[in-house]
Amino acid sequence: MGGCMSKNNTVNTTDENGGALKPNDSDAVAVGGNGTESKVTMEEEELEETVCKVDDLKDGEMREVEVAGGKVLLIKELDEFSAIGHKCSHYGAPLIKGVLSNGRVRCPWHGACFNTKTGDIEDFPGVDSIPCFKVRIEDGNVKVRTKKKQLQSHKRIKKMSVRSVENKETFVIIGGGAAGLVCAETLRQEGFLGRIVVATKEKYLPYDRPKLSKAMDGPADSIQLRKEDFFQVYDIEVKLGHEVVSIDTGVNSVRFQDGDSLTYEKLLIATGGRPRTLDIPGSDLKNICSLRNPDDANYIAQLGIGKNVVIVGSSFIGMEVASFFSGKAASITVIGRGSVPYAATLGEQVGSAIQKIAEEKGVAFNMNSGVKEYKGQEGILSSVVLSDNEEIPADLCVLGIGVNPATDFLQESGLKRSETNNVVVDRFLCTSNPNVYAAGDIAQFPLRVLNDVSVTIGHWQIAHYHGRVAALNMCGNEVETETVPFFWTAVFGKNIRFAGYNHGFDDVIISGSLEELKFIAYYARGDNIVAVATLNSDPAASKFAEFLASGNRLRKSEITSQEPESWQSRL
């Protein structure tokens, strides 16, 4: 069973705000009227309030109610009441505006899902669950019971185990991103008592990577997903600056660049991607940058202020960098291979609408183009030369042209890899070696909503989900990957949500108005709607994700009818 135990044996060593309690911490005590110490603090005292009548809510309805001065999300589903936190633990979205279906609530912004009975996070992004409150019915009244402490934060860390000296097993995780972090936490949540080692070449603890291109000037510690004391409390070893150079699956060993090695019983590989570069004349000039870590983001953010910024790549990273520099740089030029930004991912109609917004903010575009040469003075970039020989002034060039899987160290591992060097896994995320798993950007896995066609998806949400599934299966379970891909981007004050998988789409049907920037874009492959992108139409993307997750399928003919959104009533 991989050393995992019953959750009944786990311990909770955190406060309700998600901060780790030190071993010598103790609850504050209140002095009673007779001078004796009360074992129950004001924060621990249970409070109960009547929030509504049983018949006030229809089946399948959610309502925010007040309890003890705080807000709680009350849910009625299948004639049963439950109560959980009212905000998503990811970025605090109001769950009342989300989607209730099949015993869980899906966040309207980024698609995270929470169990309506427990508040546990079941799909991602985000690393925390949310509070859960007791509900009872008395004389037709719905009563919710809570503690003040539970209302102080919209986040909750699940109960977790710690290492036992009696357990000699070691589980190694290569990669300190979302997949690695969620895997480590899930192992402890499942009661794994052995040694957990997270080895990463990063010099920072796991951080919120999507923020790198959205808030580039933020300090690294402001985007950490967990503080250092969290890893200490739960006995999760994080080896920063430890790059793996090879693994030997014959003897279950990992070798690091510094010559050290480590043996394992189970291994997760989650090394993510390596930014692509351009091998052209002048590529060794200073101030040609890729964006992969907080140092990159901070350097780019500082250098570009008041300067000529050229961005190569017109998809998500490139456009978010352009958005960041809007109003900050002297000039912003985006160079893209397609006819419009996002042409390959969101289609020409949506891409054209976003390009128009960007141009109104002063961004210039050179589309159907590429860079053939960098020019500089005294070793520093001064301009870029396009494929048509046009020369554009550039003090800073940011590359956003995709990533290659960081899997070179697996050359001699014997693990099966694809033609693009992604690690091939089954629906349990297990590789060709039964002791080795892979997750996140590098994993080529069967996508259930695509009839198990093998795909590689570099989404933040997918990385989280893979980390959880891998951990469960490293513990001896048989849990399949069943998530619906979900991602988002924020550019020029606009938030685009996307759900599904639209690779190879052959048609885009727009419901709403591109001009008014309020629409749902439906992506069709043949007669099947395989994905949606939305703007100012929440929670449509979350509804579509839940629609697919529930086993439903949407036909193109339904969307082209007079009521294109009628499918939402089938949830």
Mean pLDDT: 93
Radius of gyration: 25 Å
Number of helical stretches of at least 4 residues? 8
The structure class reads alpha+beta
Task: State the share of residues found in helices, binned by percent.
Answer: 10-25%
What about the largest sheet? 6 strands, antiparallel
The poorly predicted ranges are 6-39
Ends apart, CA distance between termini = 37 Å
The 3D shape can be described as: globular
> Quick one: how many beta strands?
39
Q: How big a fraction of the residues is strand?
A: 25-35%
Strand order of the largest sheet: 3-12-11-6-5-4
Give keywords:
571 residues, alpha+beta, 6-stranded antiparallel beta sheet, 8 helices, 39 strands, 14% helix, globular
Quick recap of the structure?
The protein is an alpha+beta fold and 571 residues long.
How would you describe the overall organization of this protein?
This protein has 571 residues and is an alpha+beta fold. 46% of the residues are buried. Residues 6-39 have low confidence and may be disordered. It has eight helices and 39 strands. The longest helix is centred in the C-terminal third of the chain and has 15 residues, at 460-474. The chain is globular and about 80 Å long. The strands form ten sheets. It has a six-stranded antiparallel sheet, with no helix packed on it.
